[in-house]
Design a protein that fits this description.
The chain is α+β, with helices and mostly antiparallel strands and 526 residues long. The protein is 40% helix and 15% strand.
């Protein structure tokens, strides 16, 4: 009997164990899904997109998800600045105009310049703060100044984007903070960067400044690390929000070549800069050494068209669908003054003048569709005849007076003053002494003990060594800033070295790199 009970209990126990394991698995899955749902946006990777073009021709050299609509973050300020440059060029505003900061602009979230409501600041400082510091309050103040409100400026931004060929971009604000419907693509932002470069070259230097005076204070460039680490880099704009990730539109020039690279969705500023450097290298490898510059057409200036500042006919609506301002003419001109005749001209016969005037008056009366109450009075022949006679007599008097008071014709007098002497012949043949040509120093000085360096490995090709040097410089700016990156070819490979350092700075750099598991050894005089 005990054996039978044991046999019957065994399947039941096994089933309970299976259900217990299944329950634990389901419970774990529920917990995992709840953690994903409640995770902050920063814990999730933003979508990645990239675009590389030859800036001279616009030819696409690399693209990935380039047409996917994503959050542009502070890349938005590129369009804000483009419209600001456009407004200055067309006289809509002066760069020295004093702008009053609104409460809305002062309350924007960081990054910001720290402007106060009611404060006045020159328009040039707002441009510097938006371009270099990426200040949200400065960008909003620019938009409100040019369009009256941030919403109206966002519509102007979108309209300008369409005119530039940015077909998949919609703006909702002037600064780029995450907002529903505020989206762009890597391709569109690359297009905007190329327009900034070639449409407004007089302002493009703003994007390469390491710092700038923004009126209130001196502000550093958010892109200063890439500008310092990548040879030839001179812009353009960074961007970051939790929804967008780390974005960057970068431009670099080497010789006759210029490349623009765009990255959306970087995981950190360091990895984003390294990826952009890699894409710029790719662009320089693929771009031809010489190419003819093909400038894109600058869009026609529209200003705040559609906001009531442009006049239109009653029968012809504005091009963007907004109603134009209608001008109606009520009433007709009752009298028309005739100009006086030139003295000495042939006198027309009074009868012919009177007949012509009478015919003209009758024609106007019969062809006009004016109500009887508003019709002009009929001409009196006697009054008209007297007016013509008086005018003729007055003209004769004026002509006689003019002949009597005519001034004598002035005759030129001969020149009796001193004339300049000819240059002496000896001065004409003298030659200036040639100035000595300046000596250009192309080697880093080793004075002051700066003859140490570090080695970060040996590699099979020069390209691999240069790539490691660039990544290492971006990762360790504190101790490697100012050092010289040099690849030395040896029989065993290519050594990647940082030179021109003191013994102490070389040792410190090696310690910091070793802490990051990067191979490093100091190099000094033997």
């Amino acid at each position: 009997m005990a054996d039978i009970v044991q046999v019957r209990r065994t399947p039941l126990i096994r089933a309970l164990r299976v259900y217990s394991r299944l329950g634990r698995w389901v419970l774990g899955l529920v917990i995992f899904l709840s953690m994903v749902a409640t995770a902050p946006p920063s814990a999730m990777a933003a979508p990645y997109a990239a675009m590389v073009i030859d800036a001279r021709t616009g030819e696409v050299l690399h693209s990935r998800n380039a047409d996917t609509r994503l959050h542009p973050a502070s890349l938005t300020k590129m369009m804000t600045l483009y419209i600001a440059f456009e407004a200055i060029r067309n006289g809509e505003i002066s760069i020295d105009t004093e702008v009053k900061i609104s409460r809305n602009a002062a309350s924007e979230q960081p990054s910001k310049l720290g402007l106060k409501a009611g404060q006045r600041i020159a328009f040039r400082y707002l441009i510097r703060a938006a371009a270099v510091k990426s200040a949200n309050d400065a960008a909003t103040a620019i938009g409100e100044t040019l369009a009256g409100s941030e919403a109206a400026f966002a519509r102007r931004m979108t309209r300008t984007a369409k005119a530039l060929g940015m077909s998949r971009t919609t703006f909702k604000n002037a600064h780029g903070l995450t907002q529903n419907g505020h989206l762009s693509t890597a391709r569109d932002m690359t297009t905007l960067g190329r327009h900034l470069l070639y449409d407004y070259p007089e302002y493009y230097n703003l994007f390469s400044r390491r710092s700038a005076d923004a009126g209130v204070r001196n502000v550093p460039n958010t892109n200063r690390r890439l500008l310092a680490a990548y040879r030839g880099a001179d812009g353009i704009k960074t961007g970051y929000t939790r929804a967008a990730g780390f974005n960057l539109v970068a431009s670099a020039e080497r010789g006759n070549e210029r490349i623009i690279a765009t990255v959306f969705g970087g995981k950190s500023s360091t990895s984003r800069n390294a990826k952009v450097a890699e894409l710029l290298d790719l662009g320089f490898r693929r771009a031809p050494s010489s190419a003819k510059l093909r400038r894109q057409a600058r869009p026609p200036y529209q200003g705040n068209r559609g906001l009531g500042t442009q006049l239109a006919s009653a029968d012809e609506p504005a091009a963007d669908g907004a109603a134009g301002k209608t001008i109606r003419v009520s009433g007709l001109v009752k009298t028309s003054l005739r100009p006086r005749r030139r003295p000495g001209a042939a006198e027309p016969e009074a009868a012919s003048v009177l007949a012509e005037a009478q015919t003209e008056a009758e024609t106007e009366t019969t062809t006009s569709e004016i109500p009887a109450a508003e019709a002009p009075p009929k001409l009196d022949r006697d009054v008209l005849q007297a007016s013509i006679t008086a005018a003729i007599a007055e003209a004769e008097i004026v002509a006689a007076v003019a002949e009597q008071t005519a001034a004598p014709i002035a005759r030129p007098r001969p020149f009796v003053g001193l004339r300049p002497m000819a240059r002496p012949a000896r001065l004409a043949t003298n030659q200036t002494a040639a100035e000595p040509e300046p000596v250009v120093v192309t080697r880093l000085s080793t004075s002051g003990g700066r003859y140490w360096g570090i080695n970060v490995g040996r590699y099979g090709s020069r390209y691999q060594a240069e790539k490691v040097l660039l990544r290492t410089a971006l990762a360790e700016m504190a101790t490697l800033d100012g050092s010289l990156r040099k690849v030395v070819k040896t029989p065993r490979g290519f050594d990647a070295n940082f030179l021109g350092m003191t013994k102490e700075s070389a040792a410190l750099a090696c310690r910091r790199l070793s802490a990051r598991n990067i191979t490093c050894e100091t190099v000094g005089p033997s």
